[in-house]
Specification:
Elements: H1 2-5, E1 11-15, H2 20-31, E2 35-40, H3 43-53, E3 56-59, H4 65-79, E4 84-87, H5 102-130, E5 133-138, H6 151-171, E6 176-183, E7 186-187, H7 189-192, H8 199-213, E8 221-222, H9 224-234, E9 245-248
Parallel strand pairs: 1-2, 1-4, 2-3, 4-5, 5-6, 6-9, 7-8
Helix pairs in contact: 2-9, 4-5, 5-6
Length: 265
């Protein structure tokens, strides 16, 4: 089965690969035959995942140009090249727009948009010189529509999708593809582990929220359910796709939002 992914011996970097969906993405890439560097701001997390999959840990902070460049360059040197990059770093800070200040906006844009820009730029320098590669970024459905109390986050994620389209136009001629995955709320360990209950009960709690919110599949996603699309976008199975965003939301965006939609005409 490895052959269908076209990832055998390919050098890959997973940014934010120390836990949750990043960890699963690193595991999937390794299973598909890639040589994987795991980057995380937490060195212990990076080393743990690297030990699990026989990868290379890289420690650093991608919210600065210097930090992101150092991570990408270290991974490139350690792997002897870099043809696949997944950037999974991101976090929403909720709050009403009227109460937000510059510090919140700066932090949200730096973590959710600028970090993606910095990693793309650093990786792009290598990929343009070496003529090829694939980058997969994590956006969000919050970047498609108005998401209450998520103004900065939604704008950042919309920017990530725009960045993917623009870079695809600029770099496709050099054999570089850039795509995104846009999940809805996902029951990742970062959420479930904060709940004062066993994991199974925490998942059931989040799924009940999804039912109440009208998610057609009547549950929220799991960490592996957007790690798998990331693997697809990094692999040769998506070799004629670039500038695209795969929505992984259990059908939320196709659901008619008004209760009248369930009434008979």
């Amino acid at each position: 089965m490895k052959e269908i992914f076209g990832l055998e011996d390919e050098p890959a970097l997973v940014v934010g690969g120390g836990f949750g969906s990043g960890r699963i993405t690193a595991q999937l890439l390794a299973k598909a035959g890639a040589r994987v560097a795991i980057a995380d701001i937490d060195g212990d997390r990076a080393r743990t995942v690297a030990d699990e999959i026989g990868g290379i840990p890289v420690v650093g902070d991608i919210t600065t140009v210097e930090g992101a460049t150092a991570i990408v360059d270290e991974a490139h040197a350690a792997l002897g090249g870099l043809t696949r990059v997944a950037n999974i770093v991101g976090l929403v800070k909720m709050g009403a727009f009227i109460d937000s200040d510059f510090a919140l906006w700066d932090a949200q844009l730096r973590l959710n948009l600028y970090s993606q820009m910095f990693v793309c730029q650093a990786a792009g320098r290598h990929m343009l010189r070496e003529r090829g590669g694939s980058i997969a970024m994590v956006a969000s459905v919050s970047g498609f529509y108005g998401a209450r109390n998520q103004a900065a986050y939604g704008i950042a994620k919309a920017g990530v999708m725009s960045l993917a389209r623009t870079l695809s136009d600029e770099w496709a001629g050099s054999g570089i593809r850039i795509n995104c995955v846009a999940p809805d709320i996902t029951a990742v360990p970062r959420l479930t582990e904060t709940m004062p209950m066993p994991e199974a009960e925490a998942l059931a709690y989040f799924d009940a929220m999804a039912v109440a919110d009208g998610v057609p599949m009547q549950r929220f996603g799991r960490a592996h359910e957007f790690a798998q699309p990331l693997l697809f976008l990094l692999s040769d199975m998506s070799s004629f796709m670039t500038g695209q965003t795969l929505v992984v939301d259990g059908g939320t965006m196709v659901h008619f939002p008004h209760s009248s939609g369930d009434r008979k005409a």
